[in-house]
Every structure is written in C-alpha cells, then in structure tokens.
Design goal:
Layout (H helix, E strand, L loop, with lengths): L11 H8 L7 H7 L7 H36 L18
C-alpha cells in the first residue's frame, strides 16, 4: 500500500446521480407528522449566505490582524549585534 487513496471510478450511474437534482414531495410526510417548517427555503438560503459572509469577513479580519502582528513583531525584534570585542565580519579573512 502506497498510502495514497485510490480514486473511485465514475460510473454512468454515479454520473447520472451527480447530475440529477433530487427533490422530494414532502406533502404526505408533513401531513402525517403535522409539521411545517418555521423557515422558508428563501429565508434559509438568505441566512446561510449571511452566515458565510460573516465568517469570511471574520476570517479575513483575523488573517489581516495576524499579518500585522507578525510584521510588527519582526520590525520590533532586536537586531543581532556582533560582539564588541570581536572582529567585524568585513575584517574576517576567508
């Protein structure tokens, strides 16, 4: 075993299933259970879009903050200084 997963073959059945929209009539189920959704599909999709947008904005803000913090840390880090009693690098012979 090489540690790599084999890619499953794409069969005609799988291709058809992936290309087909699967919508089911829920009328009998709703009637049997006495249930109605509290949120419409349109409202649900709008909430989902808002949630993704908020998460993206939060992630972008966190990334920008991390980059600024890292750049600040690098800029304020103490610079290495040669020893006061030793030769400078330009005085060393190869």
């Amino acid at each position: 075993m090489t540690g790599q997963r084999e890619v499953p073959p794409i069969t005609r059945f799988l291709a058809e299933q992936l290309a087909t929209a699967h919508w089911f009539d829920q009328r009998r189920t709703r009637q049997a259970l006495g249930w109605e959704p509290s949120v419409t599909l349109e409202e649900g999709f709008a909430r989902l879009a808002d949630s993704y947008a908020a998460a993206s904005a939060t992630a972008a803000s966190a990334t920008a903050t991390a980059a600024t913090t890292a750049a600040s840390a690098v800029a304020s880090a103490p610079r290495a200084q040669p020893p006061a009693d030793g030769p400078r690098p330009d005085q060393l012979q190869a």
